[in-house]
Amino acid sequence: MRSGMIAIIGRPNAGKSTLLNAILKEKVSIISDKPQTTRNNIQGIYTTDTCQFVFIDTPGIHKPHHELGRTLNKSAYLSLQDVDLIYLIVDASKPYGSGDAFLLERLKQYQTPCFLLLNKIDLLKKEELLQHLASWEKRFSFEQIIPLSAKKEENIEELLKTSEPYLSEGMLLYPKDMVSDHGKTFQTQEIIREKVLLKTMEEVPHSIAVVVERLHEEEKEVEIDALVIVERDSQKAILIGKQAAMIKSIRLLAQKELKALYGKKCHLSLYVRVEKNWRNRQSKLHQFGYALEE
Ligand SMILES: Nc1nc2c(ncn2[C@@H]2O[C@H](COP(=O)(O)OP(=O)(O)OP(=O)(O)O)[C@@H](O)[C@H]2O)c(=O)[nH]1
């Protein structure tokens, strides 16, 4: 057997979480079209007959405007230490930009082999893809450049096959049937946060955090009370909506997915609370689960 760790890094919205879920054939990372959806390093474990891949899905690296943003970037950089392989994933439907240049500069500090994954090829014409390949090839000494579509699950097998020799022979790092390092409470919070991201626009998505306050599981049902935290009264009003319609639709969407997660009936109650400027307050970042995981 071979086993090892692979960090998946890239700019926000490049498709890191979509790739991880496509490899695992299971949803361990939430996905949305809003940048900075992923806020914690998430390990996804994929074990075949010959190999155990431990992937680390990281927050998208971006220019931070808050303490939360700085913590997210640090969290992504931390994942680059001690991994066997790095996947730099880029949205190939977007032109090369200063954010990409910044990431390449950063990668030069590491000796770890790096694959460039040109994602979202389903949105490109063949000529455009060839142009991208030629332009990226010149910029960095990538071990491999692999075009793929995480969403359409194209070229994923090829990616895994090419990655396998970069991992070391030896013991498995995790039990064979383990898929993620995060427990049900974390997953519950993330599912609720995903539904808020799905339903809200503009400044609301980035300003929220979700905390499960009570989780009571019995044989046939689970009761969950969760807090959705926002930064301003105006955001609270948007989140609750007219006659509480918005929060109700978020609750119903989340409840449906939680029912599938727990495999039983789920009663979800959501409460909205304002915590002014929480994204700049270290104590709140800790409280809401965004402290650095070394
Ligand atoms: N067309 C297309 N869309 C994709 C593909 N991969 C991801 N997406 C979409 O891109 C958006 C962002 O995907 P995520 O997987 O959340 O991206 P991420 O890199 O994890 O984003 P952050 O958490 O913000 O860092 C979502 O709307 C995905 O559906 C792809 O191969 N093709």
Automatic annotation (TrEMBL):
It is found in: Cytoplasm; Cell membrane. The keyword Membrane applies. Residues 119-122 are annotated as: G4. It is a peripheral membrane protein. Residues 10-17 are annotated as: G1. Residues 148-150 are annotated as: G5. Residues 2-169 form the Era-type G domain. It comes from the Bacteria. Residues 57-60 are annotated as: G3. Keywords: Cell membrane, Cytoplasm, GTP-binding, Membrane, Nucleotide-binding, Ribosome biogenesis, RNA-binding, rRNA-binding. Residues 36-40 are annotated as: G2. GTP binds at residues 10-17, 57-61, 119-122. HAMAP family: GTPase_Era. An essential GTPase that binds both GDP and GTP, with rapid nucleotide exchange. Plays a role in 16S rRNA processing and 30S ribosomal subunit biogenesis and possibly also in cell cycle regulation and energy metabolism. Monomer. NCBIfam families: era, PRK00089.1, small_GTP. Belongs to the TRAFAC class TrmE-Era-EngA-EngB-Septin-like GTPase superfamily. Era GTPase family. PANTHER family: GTPASE ERA, GTPASE ERA, MITOCHONDRIAL. This is GTPase Era. It comes from Massilicoli timonensis. The lineage of its organism: Bacteria, Bacillati, Bacillota, Erysipelotrichia, Erysipelotrichales.
